[in-house]
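User: Fold both of these, please.

Assistant: Here is the first one.
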Amino acid sequence: MFRILTVLLLLVSSFAYADLKLTVFDCGQLRFDDVSAFGLSNEETTVRELFVPCYLIQHNEHLMVWDAGLPLADVGRTDGNSRYEESFLDQLASMGVAPSDVDLVAFSHMHYDHVGAANAFINSTLLIQEAEAVAAFEHPEDNPVFREALYSELINANRRSLNGDLDVFGDGSVRIISAPGHTPGHQALYLELANYGPLILSGDLYHFEASRTLRRTPVFNTSAEETLDSMDKVEQLIETTGANFWIEHSKELAQSLNLAPAFYD
């Protein structure tokens, strides 16, 4: 009996951790001399630069993109508040990955700095909260941080509309966590990595470390109340799972990460 139980536990463990890899890409940087729009005074943080990441998740034979960086038109720009040296699509190509190879695409939300290459994934299945889809595709003009042209091709893409959390592959290893407030259908991502351990990608639940410490919400959030509730939900998930937590826009964090073509597993 003990041998049978051991075999079953090994099978369950190997299923939960089956070939899951996370690759992090540098998809630009943003600079804000004044951070008051993020709900912080300029004295409460010295940080002025935000990292803009893209992610590729490999689960067995499936590929999934999470967030797609700054607009591709920003690549090579030297003016304005953005810097973007090599496009997400070119970085994928250097790894032998074409947009058509990507089975699933999901964005933490539809703000322009998260969907810059979105239209390239027209053949992927879009995983999006129903509230976010309504805001992005039906009423983009109501949110000035949405740029409809960046994701307009996806209106005709295969879409799975969500109304809450989703176990993406059915084994608990990749879970979309509904966390509205920053936008109507904002979401975070939970990954169960075998070697690195559990990890949560924040989306824009927080932009700065100070945002988390002080529980501050940007003035342009859809709902401050929903944001605070989402903060509580995700912080509880961190506590119960022991997950590492990456504030996606943290440049300090980014400088400590192994970027593509390296990966976490």
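And the second sequence with its predicted structure:
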Amino acid sequence: MIRRRRECLGCKRRFTTYERIEDIPLIVVKKAGVRERFDRSKLRFGLLKACEKRPVPAEDLENIVETLEQRFLESPDRELTSREIGEYLMECLKETDKVAYLRFASVYHEFEDLREFMTKINQILE
């Protein structure tokens, strides 16, 4: 809450106003249509899991999360689908570390068998 002392230009009387910063939450729309608040820590956790035991600096992962959040804040919509977030993260990981990308993609796309995994590997190799 911000307290301000002001003066009326007409009558010259002083008065106090109280202002509140409006916090419009960022919303993520999940596959099932459920809406939840954007949580940076969930993104960071997923990226850390994908990059576990890989030579990817934590700073790079933080930059990915920061860039995504900034894009989110700059968009006129206050909602983003989990699909849009996942696709963005996969693109970033593809450029950062191919193995981490495959790990993330295997969970994100819910690969059922080795054939699906091999298809994704072949796409990377091409």
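Residues 25-125 form one domain.
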